[in-house]
# Entry
Amino acid sequence: MKNLNVEIDFPTEIVTEGQVRVLVPKLSAFVEKPSEYAPSKAPVFYNPVMELNRDIAVLALQAYQQTVKREITVCEPLAGCGVRGIRFALEVEGVKKVLINDINRKAYKLAKYNVELNRLGERVSVKNMDANLLLARHSAPYKRFDAIDIDPFGSPTPFLDSAIRATRDGGLLALTATDMAPLCGVHPKACIRKYGGKPLRTEYCHEIALRLVLGCTAVTAAKHEIGITPLFSHSTDHYVRVYILLKHGAHEANESLRNMGYILHCFNCFHRETVHEDTLLGHASECSNCGSKIDYAGPLWLGKIADEKFCTSMEEEAQKRQFKTKKRAQKILALVKTECEAPPTYYVLDKMCSRMRVPVPSVKVVLEALKKGGFIAMPTHFNLAGIKTTASAEKITSIIKTILNPNKDDKVGCKFNNF
Ligand SMILES: C[S@@+](CC[C@H](N)C(=O)[O-])C[C@H]1O[C@@H](n2cnc3c(N)ncnc32)[C@H](O)[C@@H]1O
Ligand SMILES: [Zn+2]
# Structure
């Protein structure tokens, strides 16, 4: 294809996403078998499934812009065909300039084409270099960006240092991680190498994954005397995504490191505990509920994964706009907002009931019973069969039994091995 002064020499098609029209690789032309993952077979990366990720990114950037109340500059150093950065320029009010970049020459050309197609040449620049090199060039105080969006294929950690350095004080850093096999504990060594924390294959491994990404960001930022505050995070489909406010200062860095710690998990009775870093030494290695050997995940982020005010602002933005994934995005926003004050980890009813060899009661009924019993309890966006609560595994077990068998005595002390 040759027009708009850019040559594209592979099959393409025009798609509409949000308010933009972009030329993308025609994915069907690059797969031989239906089982192949089309986005990585094409000469330029484009994944239509990530539209929801990009929709939420637009809402988060707008919510951020509203908190700073001035024009902002944005960088997307791993841009593929450029759809995300172009959407930021067109759909987010108050975006002055966007710099998009990709190391792949074909991606660069396609992104340039798309910038022209959307008549954004004045506000969107396109570069073709290594992301770390580009970010390093923007690490001096007056060259930094207000917001940086790192959306790689796999782990964001190779770009973390340079992205943190190129984000201004009070700026927003957004990260995607798609390497769920390491983060969810299938390849624990790879996770320890990349994120500096041990994962664990529990039923809430997606939350552990998200907290490992936040923890790694907190530790990396602390090296530069920068503190972090997660404004919004979600785990959706095959990825986790975090939006983090960066604040410069040794005090801020120390404060955010106070959120680092471990999740202790008992595979026998579902009991979990959180321990902050300084109290791990000397902690018992047996489960305090059933005495089994306890396993752990971490170090990871134990603090809040989202900020309620920021979630409300994103919800208001979503309400105003029309977009294809609106219903699903709004559901995620509402659930994450209720999780702002929730404790780490969640219980998955199917898993507990299958171990107890009993039918699964509805999440709603268990939530109500927990609240009636004086516990904080809410659903979670991580898993629709999941429950976040201040109640212990033992208490939840006894509540499930009472729900299923209301006339029998509630044996609170009953342990899993005794079923
Ligand atoms: C997942 S894709 C980006 C998708 C895009 N952010 C979106 O929302 O559609 C990751 C991109 O990173 C690019 N990339 C990989 N390593 C890079 C590096 N070191 N510097 C710059 N770009 C790189 C790849 O060429 C690929 O296009
Ligand atoms: Zn136990």
Remarks:
- The chain has 15 helices and 17 strands.
- The chain has two domains: 2-308, 346-419.
- The radius of gyration is 23 Å.
- The first strand starts at residue 2 and ends at 3.
